[in-house]
Please model this.
Amino acid sequence: MDQPLIRFENVYKSFGENQVLRDVNLSIYPGQLTAIIGKSGEGKSVLLKHIIGLIDSDSGNILFQGKKISKMKKAEKRDLKNKFSYMFQEMALFDSMTVFENIALPLQEKNSLKAPEIRKRVLDKMHQLDLDDIENIYPSQLSGGMKKRVALARALVTEPEIILFDEPTTGLDPIRKNAVHSMISSYQKKFGFTGVVVSHEIPDIFYISHRLAMIDEGKIIFEGTPDEIQASDEPVIQQFIRGIETRHDALTGMAPQGQGARRFIEEMARMRSHQNVFSVLILTVENLYEINKMAGYEAEQAALSNFADKVRANLRVTDICSRLGLNKLMIVLPRTDKEGAGLVCKGMAENIKNLGLTEVKTYPGFCFSVSAGIAEAEQDKPIEQIVAAAESSKNVFYEFKVC
Ligand SMILES: Nc1ncnc2c1ncn2[C@@H]1O[C@H](COP(=O)(O)OP(=O)(O)OP(=O)(O)O)[C@@H](O)[C@H]1O
Model:
């Protein structure tokens, strides 16, 4: 793995008697989205504010590319500050300013750019984020999801290396929440910035993060990938995740990823004790991005939600549906071999095709493509290997085309 871009070493912070950070050690890697999770009041925002010097530690070090920030000269600190942008709740859009003026603000504050150059950069960014033609509108005239997009445009306009997000989806409904996550993830891929996201959205945040850090009682008690945290058998971690995650993924109505994995393990146990066969079906919506291009992030998420409803309605009661990622669903088919799974999948494809996906149909000439891969479980083979086998299986590939 690369050298960390930002590293916390033995960082302590108290406010009076209230010891918030106790020996925090944490690495943030370049070009990745790292989520900071943990119970309320554990110090997630305080941690984030240390990164940009809004709060100073009592002891310990914060390093940027291996260099202690506290030892940097004034000019170096200024350069460093210019590499950052934020999307913080308390830095919401200014209602008295137009969308254009809001997005232009960081350029006016940070750079000595002339007005035509600022105009060009703001309009370019608005275009890249599908915000054309709203430059003279005021934030109060925008929907919640649109405001978040404008806030993201403001964070991106300086082309920052690092963006810090403090609970970017608070107060949004499931479709808008997932739309904001999808937007952060796709722009992170497009622009390659390093993102740090403080979030309460579990499991949704797992679908977009490369790494996660969990803070508990002032310490980082976990650092690793979303799969690793969900597989962790540390009681504190499991209690936290199971306590916060909903029974059903709010967008798809399916079980969240962690629950899907636990049901897989139960099926594996049945295979061991009763020699029951079972199969795994992975459905991937291949062209979410195109839906987004045509109709925006919210339409993309609405289409996914609608598709998941149709899948659920077309499965047997014993089948276990869960969400596997931003655009993936996993279905465990108990007592079903690969051939049987192929038939289930084919039947579902036919039914869904006939039902149609109403949200997507309104865009003429558009095809909603979903690929399906099937793998039969093998005793004691871990879930990752079976999912990978299903995803790469070429002999069972279907496309649900709703044109
Ligand atoms: N500037 C400050 N002065 C005094 N206490 C503070 C300050 N900022 C944060 N705190 C305290 O630090 C603790 C951690 O706060 P923080 O906002 O980081 O929690 P959090 O994990 O982000 O919580 P939440 O998930 O509810 O947003 C809280 O007890 C809070 O009251």
